[in-house]
Amino acid sequence: MTVDRGLDVVDFHLHFRIGADETIRACEHAADMHPGGEHERAVRVAGSAPYARQWRQAWGFPDPEPPAERWQDEADRWAEELRAVNVRRAVFVTGGGNDTVADVVERHPDLLLGFAHHDPYGADAAAELERAVVERGLRGLKLFAPLLRGPLDDEALDPLWGAAQRLGVPVLIHIGHYGSAGGLSHGRYGGPDELARMARRFPELAVVVPHFGVQHVQDLLFAAWGCPNIHVDTSGSNQWVRWMPYKLTLEELFRRCYETIGPHRIVFGSDSSWFPRGYVTRYLDDQLRICRELGLPDDHLRAIFAGNAERLLGLDD
């Protein structure tokens, strides 16, 4: 049975095999996320495992299963899943490297889109972005600020930001806590102040911050108020609101973003990433319910859940 939500959905934020993404792993090691070697890493993983199990139980999610042996089978499974839940287009913001995610997209081009996600401090990062966009058809750049080896507003990154601005593709920049339980609580670099300085230097570059900015929500709203090219993506469970020093709910996050930056800089995402959970319809349904209960008009709902993503991705021409 096809789900009818009364509007189209374009999901700006999914991951293809994020747990097995060697591109991201390399950035983690470069940022010294796993000090002490594999034994110490295993100890940390074991210590945080109860929190992960508790979270899955609270949300009613099954334990993750290993990726399929063939990426083609997993791509087909995602396509089938997205059609079943009536999501019209979906963006894999990571996928095991630029060429891998481009191959996934090419397998289902009517449904899937992808982002480059290479190391911004790597050699020829700007040239690699241009290749990924021009030759492989990717639609943006994703990076995790806690994994940076230098600040976002470092002049060394200016060629990368300049290339993205010239190509007209958005940059999705995760700030704040990285990873699940046992992850990085803060990064050495990549705070909202760096983000705002970079965004002001490149005013035609669309910058998108996922998960409402995580623990930096207040600073993100100030940055977005001062930089009209900064957008907010809504993806994930957003359970981090429980750790804030003041009461904050998903409804309040939507209300404050809507009142501060308006409906045309809020972009829906689910952060769907693994099977057998598959597409997280619960996140979508909760967010849509909240927006309707807040009384958002239909044209604003269409912008948040599809139109803004289409504009940022160049699909509205």
TrEMBL record:
PANTHER family named among the record's database cross-references: 2-AMINO-3-CARBOXYLMUCONATE-6-SEMIALDEHYDE DECARBOXYLASE, ISO-OROTATE DECARBOXYLASE (EUROFUNG)
Coiled coil: none
One CC-aspect GO term: cytoplasm
Domain Amidohydrolase-related: 11-315
Residues passing through the membrane, by range: none
GO BP annotations, alphabetical order: secondary metabolic process
Family matches, as Pfam families: Amidohydro_2
Keywords: Lyase
Gene Ontology MF terms in the entry: carboxy-lyase activity; hydrolase activity
Protein name: Amidohydrolase-related domain-containing protein
UniProt cross-references to InterPro entries, sorted A to Z: ACMSD, Amidohydro-rel, Metal_Hydrolase
Lineage: superkingdom: Bacteria
